[in-house]
Every structure is written in structure tokens, then in C-alpha cells.
Amino acid sequence: LPGLHVFAFAFALEVSVGKTNTVMALNNSNVLLPCTFTTCIGFQDLVFTWYFNLTEMIYHGKIKSKASEPILVARNPRVEFVGSTTGKDNNISIVLKNVEFSDAGKYTCHVKNPKEKNAWHNATIFLTVVQKMVETDNTVTLIIVGVVGGLIGLLILFMLIKRVVLFIIKKTQDGKKECLVSSSGNDNTENGLAGSKAEQKAPPKA
């Protein structure tokens, strides 16, 4: 059915930049911009292009087949291709050299496979350029964790003390009840009240 063919083509090729789409680089350093693609129907004469902010082309290459490596068509002098398509992964990653603050922005990896009726697929990376890497200050986090831990500890201690106090009170009350029952029984016997075991005196002889 035509509909099924369209569905298969739409999901035949997938482009990915990894688990995260954000990259941070130091000023004047080199940064890797990763990109891989997968296809379930194979590829031939595949074309891939890297764009900066969707307008400036910084690398353009072609791959004849799975058995051949990419061929350079055009590139920015500061961009180097570091991928490979003859291995396990179809890697079309690049390295941007001598990063400047003006290089910060969106980098998009476009892939077109003629076997998919020349449909374009893409993935995007956001690059941030900094003067120096700032270490994360975990002091506040440690303080919060310490306070929360302390509160939990106090709560557990309070609950234990409460259980001990309730246990002591219960034992004390049980002891008092036993004393009252024993005392009540003695009084009844001594006073000869109903239910007592006091012996009755025999009537006097005539």
C-alpha cells in the first residue's frame, strides 16, 4: 500500500547527536560536534551537511556507500571531519578548531539519502563558549542535605523517645491496676462484705 511505503521511508533514517544536545567549550580550544545516523534500508550517494545557525554551511560531504569513507565537497578551514562510515556507527562528527565566542550558537547536522526519495533528516547541537570552566560550588547543597539529614535524625529520635515514654507509662498504669485489685480483695475479706471468705461464728450454745 502507498501509505505503508511513505511510513517506512519517513522512519528509515535517523540522525542523532548523542544523549545531550548541548556542548560547552573553552575559548581558543577545539570542540567535538558529534553526529551519527542510522538507516534500516541502507544508503547510497548519501549527502551530509553541517550548518551554523541554519544559514552558514561549515562542512559538506558525500558518501558513496557503506564500503567507502566520506568525500569532502566543501568546508570551513577551521572544521575537521573526524567521523567514519565503514565501521559499526555511521559517524559524521566534526571538530571545530580554535573556538571563539562568536562560534556560540546552533549547529545542525543534515543528512539526505537518495534511497529515501531525498528526504532530509537532521539533529541539532547548541554550543556555549566560556572563558574558563567554573567549578560547581556544592556548599549550599551540602548544607541543605545536612539540615534535612539532621531533621530526619531528630524526628527518628523523638519517635523512639515517645515509644519508650509510652511504654513506661503503660507499665506503670498496669502496676497500679494490679495493686488496686489486690488491695480491694483484702479489704472485702477483712470487712466481711459480700463475696468475702470470712468464716461465720457458730451460734452460742443454749
UniProtKB/TrEMBL annotation:
Q: What InterPro entries does UniProt report for this protein, alphabetically? A: Ig-like_dom (IPR007110), Ig-like_dom_sf (IPR036179), Ig-like_fold (IPR013783), Ig_sub (IPR003599), Ig_V-set (IPR013106), Myelin_P0-rel (IPR000920)
Q: Which residues form the signal peptide?
A: none
Name the Gene Ontology molecular function terms of this record: sodium channel regulator activity; transmembrane transporter binding
Q: Which Gene Ontology terms of cellular component type are present? A: voltage-gated sodium channel complex
Q: Does the keyword rRNA processing apply?
A: no
List where Polar residues composition bias occurs.
Answer: 181-191
Compartments where found: Membrane
Task: Describe its membrane topology.
Answer: Single-pass type I membrane protein
Main localization, broad class: membrane
Regions that span the bilayer: 140-161
Where does the record place the Ig-like domain? Answer: 2-126
The region called Disordered is annotated at: 178-206
Could you list this entry's UniProt keywords, alphabetically sorted. Answer: Disulfide bond, Glycoprotein, Immunoglobulin domain, Membrane, Signal, Transmembrane, Transmembrane helix
GO terms under biological process: cardiac muscle cell action potential involved in contraction; regulation of ventricular cardiac muscle cell membrane repolarization
Q: Which PANTHER family match?
A: MYELIN P0 RELATED, SODIUM CHANNEL SUBUNIT BETA-4
Descriptive protein name: SCN4B protein
